[in-house]
Amino acid sequence: MSHFKEAFDCLRQLETELNLDYESGQKITVYRRNFEELEKKIYKPKHDYYIRVHPCGDFWESSLAKEIVVSEELTLTDSEIAAHCLWEMTFYGNQHNKEEFDEICLRLRGKTDTSNHYTVAAEELEDKLRKNYLPKRYKYATHYANFQEFLKGKSGKPTPFFKYIPDEMMWSEPRKNRPKRMRDHRLEQRIKQLERSAKVENSIRRLTCDTKSLAREELDYLFKTNLIYQTRYHTFAYNPSQRIDYLIDLLSNYVSEDFSKFTHFLLIFRTSSAYPLVKSELDMIQNFFSQYLPASANVRYGYGNNENLGKEISLLFLGSH
User: Fold this and answer.
1) Which among 108, 129, 164 is the end of a domain?
2) Geometric angle at alpha carbon 231, from 226 and 237, rounded to 5°
3) What count of other Cβ atoms lies within 10 Å of the Cβ of residue 243?
4) DSSP assignment, residue 114?
5) How many domains does one find in the chain?
6) 314 is in which domain, residue-wise?
7) Which of 84, 208, 230, 316 has its CA 20 to 30 A from that of 41?
8) Mean pLDDT, 10 residues at a time, over the chain (321 residues)?
């Protein structure tokens, strides 16, 4: 709910600008869409239909400028229409939180962060796991019709084998004897470990990018933790004198996470150099979090700059145990 509030407060302050070059047109339609038989098997919905808002994938400034047309078969209040639009507009994240939005877009495009060796190792093992059950005719690149495309790749490496395998072969469950099941189990467990290490590595990179007060060596303990909760909060107070109040209200009333189980917290605050945190704001931060977080927890603060924030504050919040 906290991120929906951030997005909503951001939308309230944006200046509308209709993008006529975009294919989505000048209207947003809210209509009832029935689940197809295939979708029912996949999603198992409670109802036979859902409310669709389309097209709402344009830039926010452009979406705000469009006329909303509600289907006659629907009876919705203005608040319900706004809620459905907000859900659709934030489906792929917050467009005005550029760092996280760019990261989401890369994941949706299937891009691999080749600088993270844990991610690369996990993908290689996943390819190996699939390749174990390929028929011989698929195991050699010379049998692919698009052999040249197979050899090409933005990374300079061969494209993973499974991308050229028919769907019916991908989703069919192969027969496995006990040694094969044990081998696959070991591979799957190793892949899970590598994927978690990749997430921890990304968390450490964010922390070290956000502030210079934390050294890389001080954060290696995160690899030994059982659970990491990480998120970023952003104020949209549009007034430097109210941004700490906004942040406190956001955490107090819109965050439902139970932090009592965490033993370590890292709180990284970033502001622009034109609007740094002043002493009164630092005191408010210390007083609030001393009561908000468990008294026995180890809490560490960090501070950094981001010139794109303007008058606002960005908080990278990380709890672990």
Assistant:
1) 108
2) 155
3) 21
4) T
5) 3
6) 211-320
7) 84
8) 92 82 74 71 68 81 87 89 89 73 66 80 83 59 45 47 47 68 89 92 89 89 92 92 96 93 95 95 96 95 92 94 93
